Amino acid sequence: MAATALLAALRERQLEEMVAIEAMYEATVIGTDEASADDQVSAGELGCTLRLPYRDEHAVLQVDLPAEYPTVAPRLALSCPALSSTRLAAMKAELTALAAARACGDDGEVCVCELAAELEARLRSVEEEEKEAAEQYDGRSAQTREDVQHENAVVRIDHMNSAKPYVRSLEVWAAQYGLAGRSRLRYVWSLVRQGSILARASSFVLSRRHRDIL
Question: Does residue 190 contact residue 182 with C-beta atoms inside 8 Å?
Answer without folding.
Answer: yes
